Amino acid sequence: MRIADLQDSLRAHIWARIHRGELTGSALSRDAGFQQAHMSNFLNARRGLSPEAMDRLLDVLELEVLDLADPEELRLRALQRPERASSFDSVPLVSLHDAVFAPNVPPRQARDSLKFRKRFLQRLKPDTIGERGDWLRFVLVKADASNAMALRLAPGAVLVLDRHYNSVRPYQQGPPNIYAVRAGTECAIRHVLVSSGRVILRPHNQDWPVELVEIAHGKGLPDYIAGRVCHTAVDL
User: Fold this and answer.
1) What is the dihedral of CA 171, 177, 182, 184, to 10 degrees?
2) Each residue of 43-55: pLDDT tens digit?
3) What are phi and psi of 129, to 5 degrees?
4) 173 contact partners, CB below 8 Å, separation of at least 6
């Protein structure tokens, strides 16, 4: 229901009470602190009310906003509420190893999950190198002590990983991308540069060492970069 519809409903309510002799426009103007011309213009649909003015009228009339809504519309919206869950996606929390090495994560391997609005996830732009169609796009990982210190994150910070973004192109102007990266049999979360056949893992913490990972013959970036950290979530 739009604000204009609510104001029309409020006008109708006031006119009905005036016609029943329960109140007058001048008394209502006085009690709500309006100029009488202001009230007349509102009641005759020559102008609307600000949210603050509408609140004052509702207080004087002892009404709630829901009292102005169409009961049938409220009933239909109530019936639709269970469907609102469909506007959220559940993103699984997995080990960093699974996030980097496992294209799909069976539900039994998920350690927990968080719900995110589909609209938020859909707005995130992918940038995929190689074939990632069979990779579950979004997973959560917890930054262990080593990765948290390297990136100056709180230990146990939960990161949303977009595994359909494995290029090293900047996502946007500002801080450089952070990635989950395969380093031999280990995994790391770092800023990434690529130079002379190497993946350079750069920490945010200047006291932390830079690491170099040789790109093996016949391999490419998709074999090393699992995905971009696109959001830092609350701790689980």
Assistant:
1) 130
2) 898 888 888 888 8
3) -110, 130
4) none
Domain boundaries, the chain: 3-69, 86-233
Classify residue 21 by its DSSP letter: T
Cβ atoms within 10 Å of 181's Cβ, excluding its own: 23
Query: Is the Cα dihedral 55, 59, 65, 68 positive or negative?
Result: negative
Query: Cα torsion for 39, 44, 47, 50, to the nearest 10°?
Result: 50
- Looking at residue 84, its pLDDT comes to 53
3-state secondary structure of 221: helix
Homologous superfamily of 86-233 in CATH? Umud Fragment, subunit A (2.10.109.10)
What token pair was written down for 63? 């009404």
Does the pLDDT at position 138 exceed 70? yes
Asked if residue 102 lies in contact with residue 70, where contact means CB atoms within 8 angstroms, the answer is no
CATH assignment of 3-69, given 3.30.1330.30, 2.10.109.10, 1.10.260.40, 2.40.40.20? Answer: 1.10.260.40
CA atoms of 125 and 139, how far apart (whole Å): 15
What are 186's two structure tokens? 């280990």
Q: Residue 141: which of 190, 90, 181, 93 has the closest Cα?
A: 93
